[in-house]
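Researcher: Next entry: PPM-type phosphatase domain-containing protein (Aphanomyces astaci).
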Amino acid sequence: EFEITPEIEFFVLACDGLWDTITSQEAVTHVREKLLQNLSMKDISYSLADLAIRSGSLDNVSVVVTLLQDRSSIT
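Model: Predicted structure:
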């Protein structure tokens, strides 16, 4: 359980197939880059899963990225 505060821009809900190969900071950086490229949330989620697979994940990889703020506020 955690509190969603105003400074939280988005969250990444994923299984261990992602977290076994990608750090939380790598995930944040990746999502921010893709948001700045105006990718859809669906495409960002797919992209993050693909990054885990390319990084060597052999497990199933499920990812959902949820935006909590307006895109224009993310830098």
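Model: Note for the record: The longest strand covers residues 10-14.
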